[in-house]
Design goal:
Structural class: alpha/beta
Keywords: Cytoplasm, Decarboxylase, Lyase, Porphyrin biosynthesis
Number of strands: 9
Strand content: 5-15%
CATH architecture: Alpha-Beta Barrel
Bound molecules: coproporphyrinogen III
CATH class: Alpha Beta
Organism: Roseitalea porphyridii
Strand order of the largest sheet: 1-4-5-6-7-8-9
CATH topology: TIM Barrel
Helix content: 40-55%
Radius of gyration: 19 Å
Shape: globular
Pfam family, one: URO-D
Largest sheet: 7 strands, parallel
Number of helices: 16
Subunit structure: Homodimer.
Subcellular location: Cytoplasm
Length: about 350
Amino acid sequence: MGERKILEVMQGKTVNPPPIWIMRQAGRYLPEYRATRANAKNFLDFCYTPELAVEATLQPIRRYGFDAAILFSDILVIPDALDRDVEFVQGEGPRMRPLAGDEIEKLDPSGVLDHLAPVFETVRRLRGELPEETTLLGFCGAPWTVATYMIAGHGTPDQAPSRLMMYREPERLDRLVDVLAEASAQYLIAQVDAGADAVKIFDSWSGVLDEVAFERYSVAPVRKMIATIKRERPGTPVIAFPKGAGYQYRGYREKTGADMIALDWTVPLDVAAQMQKEGPVQGNLDPLRVVAGREAIREGVDRILDALSGGPFVFNLGHGITPQADPDDMAFLVDHVRGKA
Ligand code: CP3
């Protein structure tokens, strides 16, 4: 069997050229994704229909031969499974019933895994259809990030509603984050049981937290989730992505127990190289370099490879690819990382 290179890196090996996958690699920049999307009633239906979700997951693997496939789904399936009436409005992003403080006590996570059964079916089918050497990644949102959407009822630029709850009613937010941490850990364990090789926890909004809140709402729940996963399914490799964490990236691996840390593009490469001495890192090209074109891609990739390819490293962007990217420029990026362009 061909070794799954990303799993080797996550065990601390240096692989050259580094393995590569891209956040949001299945998405609107691909014409074949837009065609498949047109067959779904709405975005959640897309996520819950194994035929369609498998197809969307495989599209970027067929086109680019990425070293990892990431399950096609969304972090907001957890609030959906908690009956928050999640909808994705075209052109507006996600919407759901905002969660008032006094509703938090009434949240009932007992039906979450049943509600998400189609996701596990997708994972099972994927492991059967993917090339042997392709790592299959499962994922979920971190409790804090998912909580921000549940409290506001939609995305916001600064997560003010959740930060206000954090100062005004910290015990309530603790309770919400606890419910999410337990449900999300069980959700990831079920993905592993269905065939995911490793899992990634997306804390896309950790960057709005001050240092006290970062410990309480980003680090602590992620540490708890990872402890649960490693206790119940020993050896499961975990990637953590505390986007925007800045200085607080320091010590994050040690505090949470994550095997690999995903870096956003604002992390300086000397800091990234320093972190790599403690363990594997993933990242961190600015997604807009792919939109800007080949010169910007070449320059950014070369700097990253110079700094990080001598240690355990997985190439990725520093956040998701945007719909404006040209699929041919993505091909150039992949070839350049692999030394072929
Ligand atoms: O290819 C992959 O990376 C796997 C699929 C994936 C999606 N969302 C599909 C998606 C993953 C890993 C996510 C994670 C996700 N979803 C995050 C964490 C990572 C990040 O980007 O910070 C967050 C915060 C969300 C919530 C979310 N989902 C938002 C805010 C939006 C709307 C904005 C947007 O990009 O449209 C989504 C929708 C979404 N999730 C799309 C896709 C492909 C676009 C929906 C469409 O096709 O219309």
